[in-house]
């Protein structure tokens, strides 16, 4: 049985929540525009330089725009306060996610036994879909348009065949979205309207969406006791029905991260296939860890992630089910090459889950590419289009100038890379899988002994649409 769609069990609570947010939204939008009108992206600055006449008018636009939105913000504030008094108490009764269920989509694996193969694909990407004013601090504007563009890019990728891995290396760099994915996990989808645009765009191929994941306001009965202005930013789209879902909020967030309800989302999906009277299911987990490692915050969050996943799977595993995948992904905000991140690199989570890009603690595989751009390079021509960024990532000398280098421990100098090793850069985005689940699936469920894991396929896709990197992991089984 799939999940209830509404985050509220009562229709009255849902209606009051909608009314409260409707009263708040105008004030929120005017404040967002007030800040956004004062901040330009590099693209907008370049366009002003090219259109010299408009360049002189820009200060007037900023002045009059600021005055207009400030006045509208002040006028709408009393109404927003009334809406807040209605909206905030209802957060205690709200389930920490919304489930959008659309028309069933046919699995490409329905005849997997006759075809002798089963393919599963997963992708994760950090979109920075913040309210427009906050996104501009990351050189990204027009949040709503970017959300629509990202959705179109994902849907266009579904028209291509399933990606097969290269025979010589599991890595390739592509400007196209990976094709035929089973689950898409997107991070930093904080803006509700952007999430709705994504859900609408993905509807034809991904009929099951979990969005608006996280808690708001003060959860007095929960470990997340600080006031939350934003949700977790997690957005999950699946081809397969979601049977169970659970969210946990990190209680130890600090600074600006404490304003968002970052945590762990764990789901159990029904693949819709059977083997020897057993239903095929999968577990998928996604998270976004703390950006700054103060007092081992991230290490403690990894402990929580391990504990919560174990509890979720212990409660929701059934005897008549076959688990065909167990995946953990997200933005971990630490890499596998910086001495400053040595604590997290040695966490026991990497004993439970396999990182296909990792050769060992502190060592990446030679074909890996970092996923963190240096902040000053965000405005340069070499990285401001998908094709330019692709060429930059494929060239090691260019990567050295554009990607963030490893961080030393306590400012102690160190040599990177070691002699004979390639320059990788900081990879803070992860897509991991539990090896034991695959081994169990391949060896103990009456699947022919000739069945094998044909490839594990990783790809990096730069800025599909605008402003993000994709890490893709694909499993491809073949029997015979």
From TrEMBL:
Residues 178-440 form the Endonuclease/exonuclease/phosphatase domain. GO terms for biological process: sphingomyelin metabolic process. One of its GO terms (molecular function) is sphingomyelin phosphodiesterase activity. Its EC number is 3.1.4.12. The chain crosses the membrane at residues 20-41, 62-87. Pathway: Lipid metabolism; sphingolipid metabolism; Sphingolipid metabolism. One of its GO terms (cellular component) is cytoplasm. It comes from the Eukaryota. Keywords: Hydrolase, Lipid metabolism, Membrane, Sphingolipid metabolism, Transmembrane, Transmembrane helix. CDD domains: nSMase. The keyword Transmembrane helix applies. Gene3D superfamilies: Endonuclease/exonuclease/phosphatase. The keyword Membrane applies. It catalyses: N-(hexadecanoyl)-sphing-4-enine-1-phosphocholine + H2O = N-hexadecanoylsphing-4-enine + phosphocholine + H(+); a sphingomyelin + H2O = phosphocholine + an N-acylsphing-4-enine + H(+). Belongs to the neutral sphingomyelinase family. PANTHER family: SPHINGOMYELIN PHOSPHODIESTERASE 5, SPHINGOMYELINASE FAMILY MEMBER. This is sphingomyelin phosphodiesterase. It comes from Electrophorus electricus.
């Amino acid at each position: 049985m799939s999940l209830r769609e509404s985050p509220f069990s009562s229709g009255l609570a849902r209606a009051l929540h909608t009314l409260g947010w409707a009263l708040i939204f105008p004030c929120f939008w005017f404040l967002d525009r007030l800040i956004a009108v004062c901040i330009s992206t590099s693209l907008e600055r370049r366009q002003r330089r090219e259109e010299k006449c408009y360049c002189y008018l820009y200060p007037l636009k900023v002045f009059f725009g600021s005055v207009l939105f400030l006045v509208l913000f002040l006028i709408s504030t009393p109404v927003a306060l009334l809406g807040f008094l209605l909206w905030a108490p209802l957060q205690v009764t709200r389930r920490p996610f919304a489930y959008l269920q659309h028309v069933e989509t046919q699995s490409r694996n329905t005849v997997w036994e006759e075809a002798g193969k089963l393919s599963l694909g997963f992708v994760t990407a950090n979109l920075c879909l913040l309210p427009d004013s906050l996104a501009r601090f990351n050189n990204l504007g027009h949040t709503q348009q970017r959300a629509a563009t990202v959705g179109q890019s994902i849907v266009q990728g579904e028209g291509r065949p399933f990606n097969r891995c290269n025979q010589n290396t599991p890595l390739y760099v592509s400007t196209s979205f990976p094709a035929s994915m089973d689950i898409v996990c997107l991070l930093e989808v904080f803006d509700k309207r952007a999430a709705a645009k994504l859900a609408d765009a993905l509807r034809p191929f991904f009929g099951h969406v979990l969005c608006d994941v996280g808690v708001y306001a003060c959860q007095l009965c929960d470990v997340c006791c600080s006031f939350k202005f934003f949700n977790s930013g997690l957005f999950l789209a699946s081809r397969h029905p979601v049977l169970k879902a659970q969210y946990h909020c990190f209680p130890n967030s600090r600074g600006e991260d404490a304003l968002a309800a970052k945590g762990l989302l764990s789901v159990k999906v029904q693949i819709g296939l059977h083997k020897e009277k057993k239903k095929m299911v999968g577990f998928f987990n996604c998270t976004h860890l703390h950006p700054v490692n103060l007092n081992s915050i991230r290490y403690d969050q990894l402990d929580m992630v391990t504990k919560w996943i174990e509890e979720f799977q212990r409660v929701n595993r059934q005897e008549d089910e076959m688990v065909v995948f167990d995946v953990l992904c997200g933005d971990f905000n630490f890499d596998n090459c910086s001495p400053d991140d040595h604590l997290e690199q040695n966490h026991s989570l990497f004993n439970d889950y396999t990182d296909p890009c990792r050769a060992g603690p502190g060592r990446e595989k030679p074909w890996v590419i970092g996923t963190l751009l240096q902040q000053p390079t965000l405005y340069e021509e070499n990285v401001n289009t998908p094709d330019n960024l692709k060429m930059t990532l494929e060239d090691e000398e260019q990567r050295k100038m554009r990607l963030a280098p490893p961080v030393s421990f306590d400012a102690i100098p160190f040599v990177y890379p070691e002699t004979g090793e390639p320059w990788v850069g900081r990879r803070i985005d992860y897509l991991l899988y539990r090896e034991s689940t695959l081994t169990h699936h391949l060896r103990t469920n009456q699947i022919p002994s000739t069945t094998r894991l044909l490839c594990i396929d990783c790809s990096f896709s730069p800025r599909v649409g605008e402003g993000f990197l994709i890490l893709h992991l694909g499993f491809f089984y073949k029997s015979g």
